[in-house]
Structures are given as structure tokens and as C-alpha cells.
Amino acid sequence: MKAALCYTSTTPELIELLEREVRKNLGEEAELISMQDPSILAEVREAGYVTAAPAARLMRMYTEAVLQGADAILNICSSVGEVADAFQPAAAYLGVPVVRIDEEMCREAVRLGKRVGVLATLATTLEPTKNTIKRVARELGTHVELVDGLIDGAFGLDQDQFRKLLLAAAEKIRDDVDVIVLAQGSMAYVEEDLTKATGKQTLSSPRFGAQALRKALERKGFHFE
């Protein structure tokens, strides 16, 4: 069994954290194909939205994963999550599901509360995450109020500085939300700290994405211990 992990951000912390979660769910026997193209996110950040060229390169990455024998694909970047959505008809035809890292996290946030705070360091990640939350809320037959927590100047900081800014941003919105969503997988290491500091359940995407990847493989007939 092979699972392809498609990265558009290649920080060592994100890769280590995510692959640990995937191993926890798929086991040590699973073959992981790591596919990386950080230029995709760089171009999206520069343009402020997903333009045709980076979207096409990401779709090419999915196709290459299929050619390498992947049984399922995990799309890791929320900024380009809607590219994964657009690819779904092709994925269904190919029989290789493309799983978004953040979709089940967003669904869980909607289950937990009507007021959802979204923390992000990039507007290009904040807006797609909000769109996903609104979509899954409609699917669940409910309505949510979204509270923005865009943290300017935090992208690329070291972990200690990043943690301080995240904690400060969470404190600002804590009284206005029922649950907090971390829009970027790289924020996951602060999840427990934010939950303790704010008293509000905080969710990050790597564990949800890894669980969703496992479920997609189970639907294809793979079995896990």
C-alpha cells in the first residue's frame, strides 16, 4: 500500500509532524511517497490567490503520484485545497482518492460550535479555510459565524516567536468563539498550548488529515491493525 504526501511547504517541522501522524494511522509497513514543490505556495502567496500555473503543477503532482502507484493522495496545503476539490472527478475516475488535510478538521469545528475562530499567517490560507468551513456547515445543515485571526508577520518565524504570536492572537478572539481552527498544518505544535491558554478547543489539521487518509484507504479495501 502506497500513500503520496503532496507538500507545497517543506519546513522540516511540518514534514516530521505530519509523517509521524500518518505512520501512527497507516503503520510502519505503508510506503510513503513524499512529493514536494514549494514554488506552488510561493507563487500563490505572491499573487494572493491560486493562479493557473501553480494549480496545474499541483494537479501534475497528483498525476505523478498515480503514475508512481499511489493508492491515495494527501493534499497537505490548505492554501491550495480548492485545487484538490477541482481534481476530485479525475481522482474518482482514476480510483485514487485525493484527501484534503483540513476538511475533517473543519467538519469537526462545525460540530463543536457555532462560532469558529480561524487563525492563519497567510490570507491565501485563511480564505480557503473559511470557504471549507462554510461548505461543510452547509453539508451538515447548520450555520456558523467565522471570526478571523490573521497574524501579520508571523510566517517564517522560529517556533518560540511563532508560539507567542499565536497565543496573543488566540487571546484576542477567545471570548468571541466556541472553537479555534489552525489553518496551517505547521501550527499544530501549538494546538495544546492554545487549548489550555484560551479554554477553547483548538484543532489542527495533521491528525485529522492522517485519519482521513486512513479512512480513504479503508474504503478501497485496505485493512489496518
Describe the structure.
The chain has helices at residues 12-26, 38-47, 52-67, 81-94, 103-112, 123-139, 159-173, 191-198, 205-219, and strands spanning 2-7, 31-36, 72-75, 98-100, 115-120, 145-150, 179-182, 201-203. The mean pLDDT is 93. 53% of the residues lie in helices and 17% in strands. The chain is built from nine helices and eight strands. The strands form two sheets. A four-stranded parallel beta sheet has the order 2-1-3-4, with helices on both faces. A four-stranded parallel beta sheet has the order 6-5-7-8, with helices on both faces. The radius of gyration is 17 Å and the shape is globular. By secondary structure, the protein is of the alpha/beta class. Helix 7 packs parallel to helix 8 (191-198). The longest helix is centred in the middle third of the chain and has 17 residues, at 123-139. It folds into two domains: 2-101 and 207-219, Response regulator (Rossmann fold, 3-Layer(aba) Sandwich), CATH 3.40.50.2300; 103-205, Rossmann fold (3-Layer(aba) Sandwich), CATH 3.40.50.1860. The protein starts with a strand and ends in a 6-residue tail after the last helix. The relative contact order is 0.16.
